[in-house]
Amino acid sequence: MPLITFLTIIRNDDYYVDFKERVQKTLDLNLKSLQNLKLLNSVEFLFVDWGSVKPLSDCIMVEKKFRKNVNFININESVAKKNSSPKTNYFNHSLAWNIGLKKSNSKYIIISGSDQFFDENSWQNLINLCNRTNPRNKNYYLIPRKIIDFNLYKKLISADQLLNLISNFSSSLYPFKSHAYYYGGGFAILCSKINYFKLKGMIETQDPGVANDFDLSLRSISNNFKKFNLANSIFSYKFPPLPDSNRNKLIYSKEYRKLPMLNINYNPSRWGKVAEKIKISKPKITDKSMKLRNFSPLKITNTGYLNIFKILKNLDYFFTQISDLKKIFIILKIIEETDIITFIEIGYNNHSRIDIIGSYHKYLNILCYDKDFKNKNYGYLDRLYKSSRFFNKARYGKYVPLVNTNIKKALEIINSNYTLDLTNLLILNKLDKSTIYILNNIKFFSSIKFLILFSFSEKEKNFVKNKFFSKSKEVKLDNKNFVLINEKNLDNKNLININQRIEYEYKRSYFLGYTKFIFYFILIKILNFMRYIFYSI
């Protein structure tokens, strides 16, 4: 018998534009974390599929070794409508949850959304908590959520790559999704099965659309349960909703999130049941491992222009640094429109470039190698130290400010931080002997998708391209700046598209970017001054 059931209720419809992809990603990530911990036998995943025309079990695929961990309870469309109200789009949330609670085979049950997953640390802590706690103790645990950055969510990377990236996040700098602790809203819920039964699950006689989590929290308090917020050791990650999802309209409508009625009768003795026979099914089997299988592409329209206000927010900028804006726009656009999750810069240029890129893409894995001779006189304190100080309040992704005059030792550190499994963008600010040595000895060179050369002559660019990046598409930004695109990592359509986008963004940034930059710069300075005046009164 498994220790924990991860229970969620679903329906294969347009609640989310990318619903199937979300469920598949969530399941893959949870299974992969448990596999890495060698704790697969501790958890079962139970999906209550409420009224899908095409059952989700026919759409979701897992490797054969995971199939025993996943079950779908299929409530067909006619049964679902018979037991639901049109007010909530014929989805009886309370009954769906209760059917799952009754069918669970575990000591503990997590009630969670279908697009939420735990990393290895949270799964380990969850299992430890359940193993050392008596299920008869009247404990009610709330598990908070953190929202995955939209630009990270849309990247076509594997479960391994995403979990590797997340494992390096600074948890204390990564904010939780807003929630309402005192009435239990905005959390996943963990209770023992015994305690869910003491509460008789979700009240099925409540008005459709009532906030189930609030209602369950109130009743747990009335029954003298102890409530715990597990934020210090356990939390889940949640995927962001896409803009066109039906969920965004429904969740804030008057028929949803209504306050529960008090003094209402508990569920009858036959709670969590329907008259018809319930079918339990398994997911489809795939022979492709997660390591080789990238997430499915999302149905997203063109990402549009960069958010200049977001770029400049919280930055203390100087006009002398405007000349670097075009380069910054290009780097941001490449990261936003491709699967880049790591950023490596060899040779210091200026800390503002790193600050903007790191704060705009907070999840990005960044390494900057400052190999300037001025380091001997503590010159790095005016460079990488400033970015480190700024990132303490502006981002949560991994940041390695590498300062080492020993080139061999520096290379060892670079190779230990990056692998062939990652999708990398490499920037070179100068061509010298140490740069050539690094290029000759980087172990992950074949995983570099973009090689950007800043302040290179035509001769230097040709040397690097012919020796290290011969199978690449070249984009000439101007006489001193070039982008080399690895053709092996992009098909022809994507290669042409990103090539055109880079050229367009570079030209556009010359006028529009500068104009917006100056406008927002002045606006932010005025707002900061007003804030200073306000707080000093």
Task: Quickly list its features.
537 residues; Spore Coat Polysaccharide Biosynthesis Protein SpsA, Chain A; alpha/beta
What's the helix and strand layout?
Elements: E1 4-10, H1 19-37, E2 43-50, E3 61-62, E4 70-75, H2 77-82, H3 93-103, E5 108-111, E6 116-117, H4 120-132, E7 139-143, E8 145-147, H5 150-153, H6 159-166, E9 188-192, H7 193-198, H8 212-222, E10 226-229, E11 236-238, H9 247-250, E12 279-281, E13 284-285, H10 308-312, H11 325-337, E14 342-346, H12 351-360, E15 365-370, H13 384-394, E16 399-403, H14 407-417, E17 424-428, H15 433-441, E18 448-454, H16 458-468, E19 472-476, E20 481-486, H17 492-536
Parallel strand pairs: 1-2, 1-5, 2-4, 3-13, 7-10, 8-11, 14-15, 14-17, 15-16, 17-18
Antiparallel strand pairs: 4-12, 5-9, 6-11, 7-9, 18-20, 19-20
